[in-house]
Amino acid sequence: MVRVDGLGNGSLIQVRALDKRYLRGSEEIHVLQGLNLDVEAGDFVAFMGPSGSGKTTLLNLLGGLDVPTSGSVTVAGDEISRLSAAKLTAWRARHVGFIFQMYNLLPVLTAFQNVELPLLLTKLSKSERKRHVETALDLVGLADRMHHYPRQLSGGQEQRVAIARALVADPTFLLADEPTGDLDRRSAEEIMELITRLVDEHGKTVLMVTHDPRAAERAHALLHLDKGVLVEAV
């Protein structure tokens, strides 16, 4: 169950009175204003809203890529908004899988090597890393493309590699920022089918920013951000 009233208790992700402000010259930009959010394990949440409404900023705060001006973000009991930069880096590597619009694959590495990258920060042996990577690529339907380079793959296949990379360390939750934004309709549907399957069959927790109403329809809950305020869709 997803809540935006700040009354949830014991949720996987708890956001309380979250504010984010930036200085642009002498002007203060109030991007997020007093957000409360509770997300349970296994939830699939979509965020929509106009450009500049704070959607990507919210994802960055949830994933520990940015720190709030005030308020708190707590994940599985860890208040990440209070962690040092070093501890936050280690926390992020263990708990968050990121899926981006532009895939962010390294062109000089094969699909296998791209997916393996997050595991190079762990203490896993080479054989253990190989097993994890093969499992992740099989899960996204690309076991037969593991030795291909990004230039040899379609856009949809590249995004599947990116999803496998996000999954390979078995993170606590996935953050997807416009995961279908650079894909044609057919590929977008296939990617959303994959993400839905990860939630329904594998119990993954997913928070997704999207402009695509068809993608948002697959989520368990749809939330709107407007001028830095979060509201549930009716």
List the keywords.
single chain, 234 residues, alpha/beta, six-stranded mixed beta sheet, four-stranded antiparallel beta sheet, 10 strands, 32% helix, 26% strand
User: Beta-strand percentage?
Assistant: 25-35%
Q: Distance between the terminal alpha carbons, to the nearest Å?
A: 15 Å
- Counting DSSP H or I runs of 4 or more residues, the number of helices is 7
Biggest β-sheet strands, sense, barrel:
6 strands, mixed
Number of strands: 10
What is the H/E order?
A: EEEHEEHEHHHEHEHEE
Structural class: alpha/beta
Oligomer: single chain
Structure description:
The protein has helices spanning 55-62, 85-95, 111-116, 126-139, 155-167, 185-202, 213-216; strands at 13-24, 27-39, 44-48, 70-75, 78-79, 96-100, 173-177, 206-209, 221-226, 229-232. By secondary structure, the protein is of the alpha/beta class. A 6-stranded mixed sheet has the order 6-7-8-3-9-10, sandwiched between helices. A 4-stranded antiparallel sheet has the order 2-1-4-5, with helices on one face.
